C-alpha cells in the first residue's frame, strides 16, 4: 500500500487549528443578494432564461469538486483514495465494468450515513433542493453519503456516472446532460478523468465539453493509471489525449493535465514514481487552493450572477421601451412585438445597450434565447426599469449596480485586509488610502 503522508501534509489534515468561522461574511453576502440582486432577478424572471436559481443553501455551501469522465477510468477509486475509504463499508463501489450509475455526493457528517436523493432534495437547508425539477427518476439515482472526514469539513465531492458512448441518453430515464450542467454551474473544481484505454471522444463526451465552455479555469484533466505504461507508450498516450481534446477546448493555452495513478496500491515497478508523486502533490495543491479561496470564489460567483441579472433586466427594459415607442392606437400589439423579437438588430436593441450602459458585448446573451423567453412571458407582464422604484426601497437598478461596483468588491477587499466586513471601510470614512479592488476571477 502506498504511503498517504503527502495527502495529509498537502491538504493540512493533521493540523488541529479550528476551522475559520465565515458566518458573518456569508450572512453579509446573503443580505446583499436578497436586498440588492434578487428583487430585480424576480421582477424580470431571470431564472426562466438561465434556469439557475440561487438558494441560501448554495450561498453557504462548501466548495464542490466534481468528477467527470468515461466509465471505469478510476473516478470512484480516486475519491476512495483521497478520503481513505478503502476496505470500509462506505467505500464507493469500483470495478472494471461500468459500476457507478448514481450521482453520489460525499459530505461531512458526525457518523457514516447514507441519505436518499428524495431526502436531500426535500431539505431546503442543503444546496440540492433545486434538483427536484429533474424528476423522481433522477432523485432515485441521487445518493448522499456523510463521512466523518476532516477534508469533507471543507469541501464536498460529487461522483458521477461514467460516460458510455454506445447508450442513448434517453435510456438513463432522466436528462443526464441537464443534471451534469447543474453540477458544472456550481462546481468550484472539475476533474475530467481519462485512462490510457479510453481516449476516444464520442458524442456524449463532446456534448459534455460543450457544457464546460466558459469554465476552463476550473477544469483539471487527469490521465489516470499512468503507471501501467512504459515511458515510450506513456508519451504516445499523452500526445493522443491532447489530440483528442484539442477540438473540444477552445482556449489559447493548453489545459493542465495531471499524469499519475490515483489509488492506494503502490506504483508499478520500473515506472516514474517521482514524477507521478509530484503530479499528485500538484493536484492536491490545486484542491487546497480552491478550499482556501472558498469565500473569494463565492463572492466572485455572486457578483458574476448579479452582472448577468443586470444585463438581462436592461435588455427586457429595452425591448419594452421599443415596444411602447412602436405602438400606436391602431397597431396590433402582438404583431408589433413579434417583429421586434424576430429581428432585434433592426430596432438596435443590443446596440443601444452597448452604447448607453457599461456592458461588454462579450457578456450579452444569445438573441435566440429571448424568442423562447418572451414566448413564455408576454412583454405586458413587465414594467420599465424607471418604474421599479419606491420611496423606501429605492430603485432596483441602482441597488444592483451598487452591489456590483461597491458592496461585493468591498466585501472581497475586507477579506484580503482581514477586516470585519460589517465595519465601515476607508472609502466611506476617509481613513487613509482606499483599499485596492481585490476582485479577481479564479
From TrEMBL:
Gene3D superfamilies: 1.10.268.20, P-loop containing nucleotide triphosphate hydrolases. It is found in: Endomembrane system. It is a peripheral membrane protein. Residues 59-300 form the Dynamin-type G domain. InterPro entries: Dynamin_N, EHD_N, G_DYNAMIN_dom, P-loop_NTPase, TRAFAC_Dynamin-like_GTPase. The keyword Membrane applies. Keywords: Membrane. CDD domains: EHD. The keyword Membrane applies. PANTHER family: SARCALUMENIN, TRANSMEMBRANE GTPASE FZO. This is Sarcalumenin isoform X3. It comes from Mesocricetus auratus (Golden hamster). The gene is Srl.
Amino acid at each position: 500500500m502506498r504511503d498517504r503522508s503527502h495527502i495529509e501534509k498537502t491538504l493540512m489534515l493533521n493540523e488541529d487549528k479550528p476551522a475559520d468561522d465565515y458566518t458573518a461574511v456569508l450572512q453579509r453576502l446573503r443580505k446583499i443578494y436578497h436586498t440588492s440582486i434578487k428583487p430585480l432577478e424576480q421582477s424580470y424572471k431571470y431564472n426562466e432564461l438561465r434556469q439557475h436559481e440561487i438558494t441560501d443553501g448554495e450561498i453557504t455551501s462548501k466548495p464542490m469538486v466534481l468528477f467527470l469522465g468515461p466509465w471505469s477510468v478510476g473516478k470512484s477509486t480516486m475519491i476512495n483514495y483521497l478520503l481513505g475509504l478503502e476496505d470500509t463499508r462506505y467505500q464507493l463501489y469500483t470495478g472494471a465494468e461500468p459500476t457507478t450509475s448514481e450521482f453520489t455526493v460525499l459530505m461531512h457528517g458526525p457518523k457514516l450515513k447514507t441519505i436518499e436523493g428524495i431526502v436531500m432534495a426535500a431539505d431546503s437547508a442543503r444546496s440540492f433542493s433545486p434538483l427536484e425539477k429533474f424528476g423522481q427518476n433522477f432523485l432515485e439515482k441521487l445518493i448522499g453519503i456523510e463521512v466523518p472526514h476532516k477534508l469533507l469539513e471543507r469541501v464536498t465531492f460529487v461522483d458521477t456516472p461514467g460516460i458510455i458512448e454506445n447508450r442513448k441518453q434517453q435510456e438513463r430515464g432522466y436528462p443526464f446532460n441537464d443534471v451534469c450542467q447543474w453540477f458544472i454551474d456550481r462546481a468550484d473544481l472539475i476533474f475530467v478523468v481519462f485512462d490510457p484505454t479510453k481516449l476516444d471522444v464520442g458524442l456524449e463526451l463532446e456534448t459534455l465539453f460543450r457544457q464546460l465552455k466558459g469554465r476552463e479555469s476550473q477544469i483539471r484533466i487527469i490521465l489516470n493509471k499512468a503507471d501501467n505504461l512504459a515511458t515510450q507508450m506513456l508519451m504516445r498516450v499523452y500526445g493522443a489525449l491532447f489530440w483528442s481534446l484539442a477540438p473540444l477546448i477552445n482556449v489559447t493555452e493548453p489545459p493542465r493535465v495531471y499524469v499519475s495513478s490515483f489509488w492506494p496500491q503502490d506504483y508499478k515497478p520500473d515506472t516514474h514514481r517521482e514524477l507521478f508523486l509530484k503530479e499528485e502533490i500538484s493536484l492536491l495543491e490545486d484542491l487546497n487552493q480552491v478550499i482556501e479561496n472558498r469565500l473569494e470564489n463565492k463572492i466572485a460567483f455572486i457578483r458574476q450572477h448579479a452582472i448577468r441579472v443586470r444585463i438581462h433586466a436592461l435588455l427586457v427594459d429595452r425591448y419594452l421601451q421599443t415596444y411602447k415607442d412602436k405602438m400606436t392606437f391602431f397597431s396590433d400589439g402582438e404583431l408589433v412585438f413579434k417583429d421586434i423579437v424576430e429581428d432585434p438588430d433592426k430596432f438596435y436593441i443590443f446596440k443601444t445597450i452597448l452604447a448607453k450602459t457599461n456592458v461588454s458585448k462579450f457578456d450579452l446573451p444569445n438573441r435566440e434565447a429571448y424568442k423562447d423567453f418572451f414566448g413564455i412571458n408576454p412583454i405586458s407582464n413587465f414594467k420599465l426599469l424607471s418604474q421599479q422604484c419606491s420611496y423606501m426601497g429605492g430603485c432596483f437598478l441602482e441597488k444592483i449596480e451598487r452591489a456590483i461596483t461597491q458592496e461585493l468588491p468591498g466585501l472581497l477587499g475586507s477579506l484580503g485586509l482581514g477586516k470585519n466586513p460589517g465595519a465601515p471601510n476607508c472609502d466611506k470614512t476617509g481613513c487613509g488610502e482606499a483599499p485596492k479592488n481585490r476582485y479577481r476571477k479564479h
